[in-house]
Amino acid sequence: MDNNSPYLHPQYETLSREEISCLQAERLQATVRHCMNVPFYQQKFKEMGITPDDIKTVDDVRKLPFTTKQDLRDTYPFGMVAVPMRDCVRLHSSSGTTGNPTVILHTKKDLDEWANQVARNLWMVGLRPDDVFQNSSGYGMFTGGLGFQYGAEKLGMLTVPAAAGNSLRQIKFMKDFGTTAVHAVPSYVTRLYEVMQEQGVDPRRDTKLRVLAIGAEPHSEEQRQRIEKMMGVKAYNSFGMSEMCGPGVGFECQEQNGLHFWEDYYIVEIVDPETLEPVPDGEIGELVLTTLCREAMPLLRYRTRDLTRVLGRSCPCGRNHVRLDRMRGRSDDMMVLRGVNIFPIQIEKILMQFPELASNYLITLTTDDDNDNMTVEVELAEMFTDDYARLQQLNKDITRALKDEILLTPHVKLVPRGTLPVSEGKAVRVVDKRKVYS
Amino acid sequence: MTIHQLSVFIENKAGRLVKILNILKEGGIQIIASTVSDTVEYGLYRVICDKPSQAYRLLRDNSISVTMNDVFALQIDNTPGQAAQLFETFSKADINISYMYSFMLKGKGIIVFRTGDTDKAREVISLNKFHFISEENLSEVV
């Protein structure tokens, strides 16, 4: 490692577009052949009348079948694994509250490659082995913990696996250990700053912080700039998803003009979510990713449901890996709040357990002081009491049941029957008023 | 010993109360006493009227969230300390008052309230010979 080099993996990071295409074609062919170890893909290929020999160039990726989250659920838990189970060393899983969880497995090599991606990202934003990296992200099944942990160690930094929460301790660690970089979800950085203010701690004066990595929940450019202003350092946007490995898939370089997606690891497509045809660069569509280096669970054309657009395929930083805009929403109804993925059906399921409630409800998402909040309005089926205490008790019971399900405390509001808007056909269940996508 | 009261669940928004009142007006319902209590988000509109069953059906037919229930209405003399004395009796019997409001009927003070234990409250009212108002008394007024 040359500390003065802006690149950790110059042989991959500085490839020309042509070289990227060649490498991708080669890796795609190997991936497709490897997928033939998975009955799910064997079946798909058969149905579509294709064989691995039909795949020769990168553009041939369009001949391949899509893979959806539902496919991962249907093959739960190990149906998509392409290697003997004894070669798998790690499993990550979603919470699975909407049905079967999605389970992702990794071989030793998969973990190593994942760490390489994260290390490359952290190097790209200026971190070196002398740095002290505090990971204030949830560990365990949430990939933001172990993902950054292994990557930061791979780079050679001193790592502080502080995990999320306990802000006072986080701040003490930052001061005592000379933390120079922190990774956290954006709302938690805001929270840390608030506690610093209460404690009379000035991050500029009292810490050695110089880099922030933020991700795992949607946030606006405005919010990033506010965070940078508060903490007095640059905050870089990180993209990850557990289906691909976790964090590492995409990251901003020091230009802060879009996220570089690593095309030596993934084939990146942006498609129209309706027609599934590719959209031209600059137009918003659904991000579709094909893994190129995955052993345990290769995924072909995985529909991420995230909406974004291509900003460019070159960059003053010298990397020609495609730059994507920050995620601009979802092509399904999944909501991402404070790093937690929530589907409206989860809310609905809980509300329907209360006989006092009618079936009409409305979820409103707002940003208050940089925090995402959820309000759930729901109609009373019948007026069942003349007593406030009972209405309030009902309100409390609903709030608690929802919290147990989605792990966040929503603001529950009971409304009289007939007050919520009823739309024809598909009811509008979610109104997203957050500043994120503006 | 009790009278009917309507409780309407209303949103804290402009025009909601007027809508209810207009429905009652068009049905020829005479309101005798009413009260709105509110929290930040919603209100309960409680109504004593001359034809409660009719009013209840009317509101329901107009898709209004309404419930009808029984409350006590006791008449007290118009001298200081009457209400204090009344509720002290309930308090001694360990009966909680969920809510109460009052109005004047034929120049007499009427206290409307609901208790946690209706049976026990009936007993206390009988034993102490409190002067309670019945549905008939109400319809005499209008």
Report on the structure:
The complex is a heterodimer of chains A (438) and B (142). In chain A, the strands form five sheets. A nine-stranded mixed sheet of chain A has the order 4-3-5-6-7-8-9-14-13, sandwiched between helices. Chain A has a four-stranded mixed sheet with strand order 19-18-17-20. A three-stranded antiparallel sheet of chain A has the order 10-11-12. The model of chain A has no long low-confidence stretch (mean pLDDT 92). Chain A folds into two domains: 10-332, ANL, N-terminal domain (Rossmann fold, 3-Layer(aba) Sandwich); 336-437, 2-Layer Sandwich (GMP Synthetase, Chain A, domain 3), CATH 3.30.300.30. Chain A is globular and about 75 Å long. Chain A has helices at residues 10-13, 17-35, 39-48, 69-74, 108-124, 143-155, 167-177, 186-198, 203-206, 221-231, 344-351, 388-406; strands spanning 88-93, 103-107, 132-135, 158-160, 181-184, 211-215, 234-240, 247-252, 259-261, 266-271, 285-291, 302-308, 310-312, 323-324, 335-337, 340-342, 357-368, 371-380, 411-415, 430-432. In chain A, 31% of the residues lie in helices and 24% in strands. Chain A is built from twelve helices and 20 strands. Chain A is an alpha/beta fold and 438 residues long. The longest helix of chain A has 19 residues, at 17-35. By secondary structure, chain B is of the alpha+beta class. Chain B folds into two domains: 2-70, 2-Layer Sandwich (VC0802-like), CATH 3.30.2130.10; 71-133, 2-Layer Sandwich (VC0802-like), CATH 3.30.2130.10. Chain B contains five helices and seven strands; from the N terminus they run βαββαβαββαβα. Chain B has helices at residues 16-26, 52-61, 82-92, 118-127, 135-141, and strands at 2-11, 31-38, 42-49, 66-76, 97-105, 108-115, 131-132. In chain B, strands 1, 2, 3, 4, 5, 6 and 7 form a seven-stranded antiparallel sheet that branches. Chain A binds chain B through residues 380, 382-389, 391-392, 413-419, and chain B through 5, 7-11, 37, 39, 41-42, 44, 46, 63-67, 69, 71, 98-99, 114.
